[in-house]
Design a protein that fits this description.
The complex is a heterodimer of chains A (114) and B (111). Chain A is an all-beta fold and 114 residues long. Chain A is built from no helices and 11 strands. Helices cover 0% and strands 49% of the residues of chain A. Classes of the chains: A mainly beta (114), B mainly beta (111).
Chain lengths: 114, 111
């Protein structure tokens, strides 16, 4: 049982380049989330999805787009990377209905934009 | 969204109990209290949660005040592997169940 898998683990982008971060979960979770974590800070929610084909904005959505074409995958896109998007990105998933259960997080993607 | 307040940092000696406090004075009656921890260079890890009653699991215990305005995460015997940032988070029972992280408490375990 792999849980939540994020790819890639590390990436360096030049300003203006685009990329997609992939999150895959094998627990049949309905809800999925993308967070970013800057040095010395807690996690901030970028976008989330409450089911296949649905997405919604979180706390800091600007500069990012997401898609949930399949239930098990949640993609985070950067169309034109900026140095301010240098961060560690975490994906998480959780079950629907049993609202007291915890989130399962991936191990993160460390992104540097130069 | 209801907020939580935690000390920025705490220290503990190895093999001693650790009590990590959290204040959540604006908690609503249906918010669950969740605790997560984040080890260095890893994603957050679920530790424990509760609603009104104290809870125990293999990782820790959670003591919830009678008025639910505060809670304490208890690690019974701190080990070096428990050195992490601990987050106390309120999880609503309705909506998308988004978790809002603060800056947490950085626990240092002294050998």
């Amino acid at each position: 049982n792999a849980g939540v898998t994020q790819t890639p683990k590390f990436r360096v982008l030049k300003t203006g380049q685009s990329m997609t971060l992939l999150c895959a979960q094998d627990m049949n979770h309905e809800y999925m989330y993308w967070y970013r974590q800057d040095p010395g800070m807690g996690l901030r929610l970028i976008h989330y999805s409450v089911g296949e084909g649905t997405t919604a904005k979180g706390e800091v959505p600007d500069g990012y787009n997401v898609s949930r074409l399949k239930k098990q995958n949640f993609l985070l896109g950067l169309e034109s990377a900026a140095p301010s998007q240098t961060s560690v990105y975490f994906c998480a998933s959780t079950e629907i209905g049993v609202r007291s259960y915890g989130y399962t997080f991936g191990s993160g993607t460390r992104l540097t934009v130069v | 969204d209801a907020k939580t307040t935690q000390p920025n940092s705490m220290e503990s000696n190895e093999e001693e109990p650790v009590h990590l406090p959290c204040n959540h004075s604006t908690i609503s009656g249906t918010d669950y209290i969740h605790w997560y921890r984040q080890l260095p260079s890893q994603g957050p890890e679920y530790v424990i949660h509760g609603l009104t009653s104290n809870v125990n699991n293999r990782m820790a215990s959670l003591a919830i005040a009678e008025d639910r305005k505060s809670s304490t995460l208890i690690l019974h015997r701190a080990t070096l592997r428990d050195a992490a940032v601990y987050y106390c988070i309120l999880r609503p029972q309705t909506g998308a169940n988004n978790l809002f992280f603060g800056t947490g408490t950085r626990l240092t375990v002294i050998p």
